[in-house]
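2024-03-11 09:14:02 DEBUG pipeline.ingest accepted 1 chain
2024-03-11 09:14:02 DEBUG pipeline.ingest length=158
2024-03-11 09:14:03 DEBUG pipeline.predict start
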Amino acid sequence: MTRNEVPELSASIQIAAPVEEVWQLVSDVTRMPEWSPQVQSVRLRSGFDEVSLGAEFTNRNSLGGGLDWTTHATITAYDAPREVAFRVEENWVTWRFALSPTDDGTLLVQHREAPDGISDLSQQLTDGFMGGTEQFSDTMRAGMAETLERIKSAAEFH
């Protein structure tokens, strides 16, 4: 693994709710603070009134202990009710939610993809403040599992 490569991460969960209901939860990125333990706030950027392909937004993230940061992202895929993805400007990472109907409801898969690696700045911050790539990837895996559980809970018990 070269300095700027990070592993792709993926987590999935079976949800006992129709795809359309799960889509309503995951397709609106402004609701991400309800799901992700890391995301504190999401706000559409000036000039964007709705979540759709090409929409830009700002995230405020936190890992606790005073480690807070802001990122900017763009919706790169918006295919109702199957997929929503966004690419983070600062680190080049794409986050993707893919939904598939199943006999029991919906299979929801969350991916963290970094086909171009991550930016030098992101690598420096990961090494300097987040315990390095391996530790931060473990933190991201745990966060993804928690995110999916929260979405499942909201979809099944609304």
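2024-03-11 09:14:41 DEBUG pipeline.report The beta strands are 9-15, 39-44, 56-62, 68-79, 83-88, 94-102, 105-113.
2024-03-11 09:14:41 DEBUG pipeline.predict end
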